[in-house]
Amino acid sequence: MDDLVSRTAAALTGEMEGLADHLVTRMLHEIPELDGDPALAALLRVSVEDNIRIAMQRFSAGERQPQEPPASALEYARRLAQRGVPVSALLRAYRLGQAECQQLMIEAFARDTDDPAAIVAATVEFSAATFAYIDGISEHVVQAHQDERRRWLQSRSAALAAQVTTVLAGDALEVGQAERLLGYELGQRHLGLVGWSDPGPGALDRLGREVRRVAGDLGCLRDPLVVPADATTVWAWLPVPRGGDARAVTAASPDVRLAVGEPGTGLDGFRATHRQALAARAVALGADERASTPVTTYADAGLVALLRTDVGDLAAWVHGVLGGLATDDDQHARLRDTVRVLLAHQGSHTAAAAELSLHRNTVLYRQRRAEEARGRPLDDGRLDVEVALLACHLLGRRVLC
Predict the structure, then answer these.
(1) DSSP state for residue 240 in the 8-state scheme
(2) pTM value?
(3) Residues 237-262, mean pLDDT to the nearest whole number
(4) Is 1.10.10.2840 the CATH classification of the domain at 317-399?
(5) Binning pLDDT at 50, 70 and 90, where does residue 64 land?
(6) If residue 86 lies in a helix (H) or strand (E), which one and from where to where?
(7) Could you give the dihedral angle defined by the CA atoms of residues 167, 172, 178 and 180, in that order, rounded to the nearest 10 degrees?
(8) Options 1.10.150, 1.25.40, 1.10.490, 2.60.40; which CATH number does 3-154 get?
(9) Within 10 Å of residue 310's Cβ, how many Cβ atoms?
(10) pLDDT for position 287
């Protein structure tokens, strides 16, 4: 292999982490099918770095023949297959990575020498080498994806997962039709849960046992609905009795983590509690190791989760916090603005009255009316109240009811 190629590849080996971060960011931005799950994004990051390291080591050693892909690349391909992500998205990621690395190397060649002939020769050599590497690797990861997809679709769990996906996405479904698909009663009160574990033999079995243990702890009288999302993740719905609280959920197994929504009833509640559990999981996966906990509830993580969600979910949360105070009319708008200013002044009626050009007694009266509309005092969950009022102030009817 060309000396310039070998020398440059060896020099760039020390820049792998930065290059991998750049590539992953671009892949997630340009290939929507790969984005959406922090755990999958983390696995993509490992696969990209492993591929770069192996490729650069081979190029620096003057080797061109393709080899077996890294284990992380095969695992990522299998995980995408389990999630139903098409193989075309995976191949596009490899092509994008090839193009980015090639551009980086050409720029490095130009910094190394001002000899045009040497740059052209090195570029031709590197292009051929990267094509051979990607071509060889692609064959293996495509095969891994296809084999896993075939196996996954043949499993009973995959059939149930497909039915759950239909129920979660099918706005036109009736409750009876959804219940027949799931074999699960939707009229009851359910608590959404997402459980995940490190990869390894028996991961889904461990997660299933953990979900059933939690269901027992919460006093569930019927079996939970447990659906594998992939080889390391389950989605679950627990038929919790009245009084069953997400904050009572604990994780007994040290290698299992849980994210929990708020209880909901009916088909809408089935969907909402699942969305909340997914949002709580996203917060848990985004936390550093020191802040991570075995169980993350939407009740605790809701404020942070809102930064990752859409306006529809935000509106539902605002209504849950403010109750009738989130009503979309002029009367309740005046009440919201008054108590928003009151809370901003740490509950000082005098200061709020001065800012609003109102009499102090008017502020007191509106506070009482706001608490009546909400159904509880403003100090009950005060931080949530302040954020919800701010959302109403900034977004208006988009979050009102």
Answers:
(1) P
(2) 0.58
(3) 82
(4) yes
(5) low
(6) none
(7) -130
(8) 1.10.490
(9) 9
(10) 64
